[in-house]
């Protein structure tokens, strides 16, 4: 089939405002990715003799956990902020908080300042990772919603790559300087973007919603779009959202179960453990083929490329296929790492095959990001109705945080006394569980409107399209 280049250019042009909003609205994620990966290069520095801060091993473990505790404590503020002040203002407030955290890290001369900074970063990251997917889902055309929602993870991995590239080789203050510059850029640009039409209509600000739609979707029939949003919100407002509805309403209950498995699944597949401890894990493997600092840079680069690939393909192949391929492939890589460390712990000479952990980590990074590491944040923003979106996405985010804490604790408590292979066996088995769950329980949301997705979750039947009109059968 021959594609009309004029039509293609026109398509790119009509979506450009949405792309600009998505890009500038997720710049914070570069800084957040730097924060997440910060411990990998800096824990070895902090416990070394060259450190400017006296640090114990137990304190470095708290540096990892403190970030997630901050995120957990930030949940009540997140619930209140995204509905009271809006998605856009919540993102801007989160960016200001992250900026304060970077300033604290740059001037820290005691561990207390690092703990406070990590705690604040966790709170800000929690708010941003709830507000950003809501912003993307509510302003994006459904044809590119998956791609735009995936940009946030591309930004995260740009951040991870930056901290792995600069962390081991530059002075302590350089990384905070870069992180601060990123959030200042977002504050300077994203401030001028509109709030989402959905939120504005939800607050009965129709004229502002009209102006937002004229910016985001100048190609559509504005009045028709406003009427559709109004109808959808009216249906959802008829049953005003209550916290207990997450359990009492079938579609919400199913959405919560889905997000609990997907969001905890990311961490129980070893993502946080590997990202925060990559240098130490690779050094423990005793590989003679590549320095851990160089391998970390390659790992971050692979994950970035994989995230870009996934964001481009998620609207083509759908969510379920990518999730299943990703979870099975990641599980196999984790089991390979587990077997390597298991053999090493028994005294077997593994030096000739010490390339296995490095290759497994790289393949893991590639496959994890095409599905399990990308799709959940897209699905999260799609499967909750507007009147429950703040509650639902915040609870889903809580599951993400709790999964991170559990994953880190499993690693820290098992790796020392039992051997590093034990937690990796657990992470690998969890990957197969996620694949089975996805196949039998998660509906495909590709190309569906937010209203159609609610119909699927309620079990009202399949969506059939006739001349671009959706009909529930």
UniProtKB/TrEMBL annotation:
InterPro entries: MFS_dom, MFS_sugar_transport-like, MFS_trans_sf, MFS_Trehalose_Transporter, Sugar/inositol_transpt, Sugar_transporter_CS
Organism: Phaedon cochleariae
Domain called Major facilitator superfamily (MFS) profile: residue spans: 18-446
Gene Ontology cellular component annotations, sorted alphabetically: plasma membrane
Keyword Cell membrane: yes
Pfam families associated with the record: Sugar_tr (PF00083)
Membrane topology: Multi-pass membrane protein
Places the protein is found: Cell membrane
The protein, known as: Putative sugar transporter 10
GO molecular function: transmembrane transporter activity
PROSITE patterns, per the entry: MFS, SUGAR_TRANSPORT_1
Transmembrane segments: 91-108, 114-135, 147-166, 172-193, 268-289, 295-314, 321-343, 355-379, 391-412, 424-442
Keyword terms, alphabetized: Cell membrane, Glycoprotein, Membrane, Sugar transport, Transmembrane, Transmembrane helix, Transport
Main location: membrane
